[in-house]
Automatic annotation (TrEMBL):
It holds the Pfam family TusA. Residues 7-31 form the UPF0033 domain. Belongs to the sulfur carrier protein TusA family. It comes from Metabacillus rhizolycopersici. It comes from the Bacteria. This is Sulfurtransferase TusA family protein. SUPFAM superfamilies: SirA-like.
Length: 75
């Protein structure tokens, strides 16, 4: 998978990861992929709901050493 932009939102609490993800999405083109790293456990529900509500596609998410990773394709 080709990653077009990586967002480091580790250590930030809700809603900051979503705010930063929205800003990062504005910096990439439709069809490109944003990889997000966060330690906010609420991000699992928040990011998937946000992506769906604005027309982006959550490709997958993973957890590695207490860091949640999300790959979202811009709609």
């Amino acid at each position: 998978m080709k990653i077009d932009k990586v967002l480091d939102a580790k250590g930030l609490a809700c809603p900051v990861p979503i705010v930063k993800a929205k800003k990062a999405m504005n910096e990439i083109e439709s069809g490109e992929i944003l990889e997000i790293h966060t330690t906010d456990k609420g991000a699992k529900n928040d990011l998937s709901a946000w992506a769906k509500s604005v027309g982006h596609e959550l490709l997958k998410h993973d957890e590695e050493n207490d860091v949640l990773k999300f790959w979202i394709k811009k709609g």
